[in-house]
Amino acid sequence: MKMMKASENVMIDNRLVYGNMDLLNKGLLIKSCYPLFNIYNFCTDIFSINLMYIKVCLLTFLSTATAWKFTCILFVFMYQIQDVRRKEEAAARAGIVLEEKNWPPFFPIIHHDIANEIPIHLQKLQYVAFTTLLGLVLCLFWNVIAVTAAWIKGEGVKIWFLAIIYFIAGVPGAYVLWYRPLYRAFRTESALKFGWFFMLYLLHIGFCILAAVAPPIVFKGKSLTGILSAIDVLGDHALIGIFYFIGFGLFCIETLISIWVIQQVYMYFRGSGKAAEMKREAARGALRAAI
């Protein structure tokens, strides 16, 4: 009888064990995560960072083996945060302005705050310059649409690839090469940044004029929605020709506004004495290079 009771107890114990294996696994997982919870408490004391979601991830997804691997990842993550904070504090002590990305509001990728960083008498001009940047984005985007339609109608895939290259390279290139230098020139009154803006903004205007004309230089010019390519396409496909004429109009408007912007910036540049300052800085730079 004792042996039968013992065997029954063993069977009951086995059923309990296997029937509650999930609970046991969770218990082992929690025990395995105790060291990580201690690390969490240590990190929050030192860095004041709320890492509660790490606990949830550990309890939900991690096994005993991966928990210890996650320890290393956690330490690297915390070290990077500490390093970033050190750099921010050092920059603040040195008086360096950190540019926080805030535009566009729904997906910030650049820093842009004309109202608070640009002098009041220059804000209108900066807004118009920003309009030319957005206008270039619109022109190149419409250029992709029109060229895509022409490609569908049998104009060839090469012009479509060129239109994509114009858009991918032109939009970030315009921001980095001429809009940001103008923004910083107005903000810091740097003569050299004005010179950089003038040189590259002239290239921007030249590209807009080239796009508005679209001479038959590269693949018969149909990779750009200019007047010549619009006339060429209109004879075969009226709708696509209209698309090209709309692109031609957009590039013309972009060119005219850009010419007005560079004229106004140049007038301010000469009137504020930045031209003479730029010459002095260039002369000092040449002297230092010679020495």
From TrEMBL:
<keyword id="KW-1003">Cell membrane</keyword>
<feature type="transmembrane region" description="Helical">
    <location>
        <begin position="158"/>
        <end position="178"/>
    </location>
</feature>
<feature type="transmembrane region" description="Helical">
    <location>
        <begin position="198"/>
        <end position="218"/>
    </location>
</feature>
<keyword id="KW-0968">Cytoplasmic vesicle</keyword>
<keyword id="KW-0812">Transmembrane</keyword>
<comment type="function">
    <text>Probably involved in membrane trafficking.</text>
</comment>
<keyword id="KW-0813">Transport</keyword>
<feature type="transmembrane region" description="Helical">
    <location>
        <begin position="238"/>
        <end position="262"/>
    </location>
</feature>
<dbReference type="GO" id="GO:0015031">
    <property type="term" value="P:protein transport"/>
</dbReference>
<protein>
    <recommendedName>
        <fullName>Secretory carrier-associated membrane protein</fullName>
    </recommendedName>
</protein>
<dbReference type="GO" id="GO:0032588">
    <property type="term" value="C:trans-Golgi network membrane"/>
</dbReference>
<feature type="transmembrane region" description="Helical">
    <location>
        <begin position="127"/>
        <end position="152"/>
    </location>
</feature>
<keyword id="KW-0472">Membrane</keyword>
<keyword id="KW-1133">Transmembrane helix</keyword>
<feature type="transmembrane region" description="Helical">
    <location>
        <begin position="52"/>
        <end position="77"/>
    </location>
</feature>
<dbReference type="GO" id="GO:0005886">
    <property type="term" value="C:plasma membrane"/>
</dbReference>
<dbReference type="GO" id="GO:0055038">
    <property type="term" value="C:recycling endosome membrane"/>
</dbReference>
<comment type="similarity">
    <text>Belongs to the SCAMP family.</text>
</comment>
<dbReference type="InterPro" id="IPR007273">
    <property type="entry name" value="SCAMP"/>
</dbReference>
<dbReference type="GO" id="GO:0030658">
    <property type="term" value="C:transport vesicle membrane"/>
</dbReference>
<dbReference type="Pfam" id="PF04144">
    <property type="entry name" value="SCAMP"/>
</dbReference>
